[in-house]
Amino acid sequence: MKTFIKNIGQLATLASSKKGARKKEDMSNLAIIENGAILMKNGLIEAIGTTQELQSQYMNELKDALIFNANGKLVTPGLVDPHTHIAYGGSREQEFDLRLRGASYMDIMNAGGGIHATMRMTREATEDELVAQTAKRLDGFAKHGVTTVEGKSGYGMDLETELKQLRVMKRLQQSHALDIVPTFMGAHAVPKEYKGREDEFVDIIIRDMLPKVAQEKLAEFNDVFCEKDVYTPQQAERILEAGKKLGLVPKIHADEIVSYGGAELAAKVGAISAEHLLKVSDEGIRQMAEKNVIACLLPATALFLREEAAPGRKLIDEGVAVAISTDCNPGSSPTVSMPLVMNLACISMRLTPAEALTAATYNAAYAINRQEFIGSLEVGKKADVVLWDVASYEELQYLFGVNHVKSVWKSGKKIV
Ligand SMILES: N=CN[C@@H](CCC(=O)O)C(=O)O
Ligand SMILES: [Zn+2]
């Protein structure tokens, strides 16, 4: 199957010959081709260049290709969401109401709501119900230009339900058009019955859960909510080191509510990314830059929790590679809109429009170890492509709060 998109006003390829997630000024290099074109074949990018070049070089190939005219609009790589909690049961709109009346996120969680409420609803749901609910969310992601989504377990907090969530994602990886990258997050909260005996639950995660997850190859990453009143840096370190021995790459929910040494721990254990970072310390930033830990920033979560956003500008200026994500979850960020997240990255964290696009594509792919296949439009990579109803990436970030997606191709197949 061949598809040819021509007359692309601004083709933001993000192509690069450098290795590694992009830092500092490299985050502004979108490698734009004016009046561009892409030829997709068998799910991959076969050729990319100007419309004129491709039309003359691939004259024969184009005879039986599907032709799309972009009419001067913007094309980018499919967006990559490197941090979500998509496979959950139920909903928590009552909590939103409570928070607006003054309760804090942690008050609600410590009173048995929050993550615990979703845990109960996820335990009650059947695997089929979770597959159906999660598929709907993935459809929403696709409509917003996202072609790859990371997804975490962590609403089970018992072996059976953690495995159920991971199997749901595995089934969707087979049946849904989008790619799903699974992360185990057994340490997402402390189950009520282990309050005060957190170390015992850490032992259960290490002894019972991690080996099973690794044995069934249900996850690639291992994440921990390292936060005051949740897991200490020491407990998080034990879990992450145990995962590493089983081949699971560490990620950390770090320094979200208070500054707690999460970024420093990410550097120490060699985490691929540290997430949230609203309250990251200067020393944490320094260590992340030195150890090449990607900052995965979640500005929609900060907005929804009415908190000041993470210091995105400062992280970039200090040499940390930044990715951005929806954090899609029922409590602190019930959105599937990566375009909104890019807008917020500019508005609330002072990323430039170009940096926000890099953070949602190239660096996001690095944050989930998919850089060889996605995140930029280059020959041989997956044909994950978005055509937007705007003329430029600047306009995409400027006309905020609107879904400008016109068409989406996933592995060369038009899905929106
Ligand atoms: N902060 C911890 N975990 C999630 C929220 C999960 C929830 O509230 O259900 C997050 O990344 O925002
Ligand atoms: Zn999260």
TrEMBL record:
4-imidazolone-5-propanoate binds at R92, Y155, H188, E256, S332. Its EC number is 3.5.2.7. GO terms for cellular component: cytoplasm. Residues 74-413 form the Amidohydrolase-related domain. Zn(2+) binds at H83, H85, H253, D327. InterPro entries: Amidohydro-rel, HutI, Metal-dep_hydrolase_composite, Metal_Hydrolase. N-formimidoyl-L-glutamate binds at Y155, N329, G331. It is found in: Cytoplasm. This is Imidazolonepropionase.
